[in-house]
Design goal:
Metallo-beta-lactamase, Chain A, 242 residues, globular, alpha/beta, seven-stranded mixed beta sheet, single chain
């Protein structure tokens, strides 16, 4: 399994990083975890054909995490018409949220989404199994209207875990348990504030996270400038085999 970091920045683009988008690749199939506004640009930079992206998984409804979907879909409609199915997975209200965003950004194109063979799957209490993949999604502590979730993807005997945006919640312990790679947000250095994690707290709770391979994402400027980190820090364009 390979992770390509298309974007690992926060909403404000600190450090010049692009919005959240993580591409997982296995046997020439791509799964996109989050699709921030800059994602299509980064996919083209990596020479990824959109038809090879079988699945898009959305953690929550904030623009730096799903604002790139309209660009992905209009490219798949008009630039290189998509001929294969696409599965989009996310919180409740997913299809309606995507339609509203599509219309807001490109008026008149929302109705054209039916030209795609798109399956919309919404998170529930139980794991979701489809196309050889299992997704476990757990509610996390972030802006409630965005319906935030952390994600665990089990695919081909590998486990990828992702915090989404959240302050500390014990759901992270379950999501990352024995995972092969855990991408965890870390917006602040010292400040503990609702909705985002801070570095000091992650260090304090490190023993609760049963995962050796932890990489920080969604970092604010103070965390980016931290020279001596207990954790690895992601950067755009990074590729990790796991």
């Amino acid at each position: 399994m390979k992770l390509t970091v298309l974007g690992c920045g926060d909403a404000f683009g600190n450090g010049g990083r692009n919005h959240s988008a993580f591409l997982l690749t296995n046997n020439n199939e791509h799964v996109l975890v989050d699709c921030g506004a800059s994602t299509l640009i980064r996919l083209k930079h990596e020479s990824i054909h959109l038809e090879d992206v079988s699945t898009i998984i959305i953690s929550h409804f904030h623009g730096d995490h799903y604002g790139g979907i309209p660009f992905f879909l209009i490219s798949s409609l008009f630039e290189t018409p998509r001929k294969v199915p696409l599965t989009i997975v996310g919180p409740k209200g997913l299809k309606e949220k995507i339609f509203i965003l599509q219309e807001a950004m490109y008026s008149g194109t929302g109705e054209k989404l039916d030209q795609h063979d798109i399956t919309y799957l919404e998170y529930g209490e139980n794991p979701m199994d489809f196309d050889g993949k299992r997704i476990v999604a757990k509610p996390v502590e972030h802006s409630p209207p965005s319906i935030p979730h952390g994600i665990r993807l089990e695919w081909e005997n590998k486990v990828f875990a992702y915090s989404g945006d959240t302050s500390w919640t014990d759901s992270l312990i379950e999501l990352c348990d024995k995972s092969d790679l855990f991408v965890c947000e870390c917006n602040f250095l010292h400040e503990q504030a609702y909705g985002h994690l801070c570095y000091d707290e992650l260090v304090e709770r490190r023993s609760q996270l049963n995962c050796e391979n932890i990489w920080l994402s969604h970092m604010g400027s103070e965390v980016l400038n931290l020279d001596d980190s207990v954790f690895n820090k992601l950067s755009d364009g990074m590729k990790i085999d796991f």
